[in-house]
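tokens incoming
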């Protein structure tokens, strides 16, 4: 049974930082590309950042470039999203995604950026 479990969300002030983690189990982690998506209230889910199976390639949404960094530790079956200089518009539920020939999703973790 595949599980993706996100953690690290919470309430943070504008300009602050958070680090999200997604621990994967039940799959051969180092064969999967991993991504972070987010969904704000009344908005569609959007891709935030993705990383290749080896970690050599990453890409980011324009809205987070220079502020967010995606990384992975294949030894720990975990992918991370370091979020710096957070803005109120970053408020959303953040989801972990794994894809190879099939796709898996985590349950999401809430990030709220507010003073």
């Amino acid at each position: 049974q595949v599980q993706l479990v996100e953690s690290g969300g919470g309430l943070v002030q504008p300009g602050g930082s958070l680090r999200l983690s997604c621990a994967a189990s039940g799959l051969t982690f180092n064969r999967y590309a991993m991504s972070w998506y987010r969904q704000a209230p009344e908005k569609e889910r959007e891709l935030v950042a993705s990383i290749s199976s080896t970690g050599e390639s990453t890409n980011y949404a324009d809205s987070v470039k220079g502020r967010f960094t995606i990384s992975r530790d294949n030894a720990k079956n975990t992918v991370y999203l370091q979020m710096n200089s957070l803005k109120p518009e970053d408020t959303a539920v953040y989801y972990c995604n794994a894809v190879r020939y099939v796709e898996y999703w985590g349950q999401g973790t809430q990030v709220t950026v507010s003073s």
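note: The longest strand covers residues 18-25.
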